[in-house]
Specification:
The complex is a heterodimer of chains A (231) and B (129).
Chain A: H1 2-14, H2 22-43, H3 51-79, H4 84-110, H5 112-160, H6 166-192, H7 203-223
Helix pairs in contact in A: 2-3, 2-7, 3-4, 3-6, 3-7, 4-5, 4-6, 4-7
Chain B: H1 2-24, E1 33-36, E2 46-53, E3 56-58, E4 61-64, E5 70-74, E6 84-87, E7 92-95, E8 103-107, E9 111-117, E10 123-128
Parallel strand pairs in B: 2-5, 4-10
Antiparallel strand pairs in B: 1-8, 2-3, 5-8, 6-7, 6-9, 9-10
The chains are: A mainly alpha (231), B alpha+beta (129).
Chain lengths: 231, 129
């Protein structure tokens, strides 16, 4: 197991093969997100009182997880088809994490309803893209169900922690999500040994995905509807 | 080597941007009210009793004066998470097990604040004049 992890890390470090493209893609996603947020901040959001403290904190952790999601999506797109068991695990993990995090950060600023709706929509979409694409109807179902569950759970967790240690919980939740996504990267690497990859670049997809996810999340957080408890 | 450089740059970027957002969001807590222990306040105490009606606090709008202690009672109709009364912006967070356990605080900041239960299920407005 440790030997395999070492071998995976070497591949990631060497910059060859699909695992070698993980770091550049995650980095590109981060740069794209920070660039969009910086641009929007200087153009519009600096006039919103308390933007950095009220929204910036949650947006930062949101875009961080979106960047790690890009890494896994790159691997999934590279291999295309997976055995049912692996495809279901991929669809479930991606749907759950993307739904949970997006629902969590939106609910932290806008309340449970809009957080749940956004989390479910985002989670189901990612779950279908990943699970449905790589192993058919089983992956599709797994991705849909996990996105549905993750979106609701993320929003509910954030809303219930609102009067408690919400910010500390955000850091913990993000750390756990990062470890899970990294483990999924490793799982796909192991599974991919028996499969033939396309060796795609993926940079364009990463930038477009990040652009859409970041702008949509930011727009909903700032201009989206709010529940009564947020005034 | 190329990937190592990108990785290093990425880690630095995450820490710098993350530290900026994390430290910017650390605001002062419990700055707008003084929490008092029962029996420690005397004189002009503003007494407020909250109950539950239509699955929310009743009354959902409270008006109090700044600088004077507020003695809040959650009556026997208030149950579950509704008994954990919070005014987040003033730093008031207190769990009252039974109606005899009063929540006493002195608001020092004027304005309109949201009060809620710990899970945000019930909520209302506290106006400090």
């Amino acid at each position: 197991m440790i030997c395999m992890i070492k071998s995976f890390l070497r591949e990631v470090q060497k910059g060859k093969g699909i695992e070698g493209k993980l770091i550049p893609n995650v980095f590109a996603s981060l740069v794209t997100s920070f660039f969009i947020l910086g641009l929007l901040y200087f153009a519009k959001f600096r006039f919103i009182e308390g933007f950095v403290s009220d929204y910036g904190f949650f947006l930062f952790f949101g875009v961080l997880i979106y960047a790690f999601l890009c890494g896994v999506l790159l691997q999934v797109r590279n291999f295309g088809i997976f055995p049912c068991m692996s495809g279901m695990m991929i669809g479930m993990t991606l749907g759950m994490i993307s739904g949970f995090i997006s629902g969590y950060i939106v609910a932290a600023t806008n309340g449970m309803f809009i957080g749940s709706v956004f989390g479910m929509a985002f989670g189901i979409l990612i779950g279908i893209i990943s699970g449905g694409r790589c192993c058919g109807v089983m992956g599709f179902l797994e991705g849909t169900m996990s996105g549905f569950m993750g979106g609701l759970m993320g929003a509910m967790t954030a809303f219930m922690l609102f009067n408690d240690n919400l910010r500390l919980a955000t850091i913990i939740v993000s750390l756990i999500s990062t470890v899970i996504l990294f483990a999924l990267n490793y799982m796909i690497y192991i599974e991919g040994k028996q499969l033939e990859g396309k060796d795609i670049d993926g940079m364009f997809f990463t930038i477009v995905f990040t652009f859409v996810a970041t702008t949509l999340t930011t727009w909903i957080m700032i201009y989206g509807p709010r529940s009564g408890v947020f005034g | 080597m190329k990937n190592n450089a990108i990785l290093g740059l990425g880690i630095v970027l995450i820490f710098v941007v993350g530290a900026y957002f994390v430290f910017s969001s650390l605001g002062p807590s419990n700055s707008g009210a003084i929490l008092n222990e029962p029996g420690t306040v005397s004189g002009d105490v503003q007494k407020v009793t909250l109950s539950v009606k239509d699955l929310n606090y009743y009354p959902s709008k409270i008006t109090v004066e700044s600088g004077k202690p507020v003695e809040l009672t959650l009556d026997s109709s208030v149950t579950g998470c509704f008994r954990a009364f919070t005014v987040r912006e003033l730093g008031v967070v207190k769990y009252s097990k039974k109606p005899s356990e009063k929540i006493i605080f002195t608001p020092t900041e004027k304005g309109i604040f949201r009060f809620a239960c710990s899970m945000g299920m019930g909520y209302g407005t506290l106006e400090v004049k």
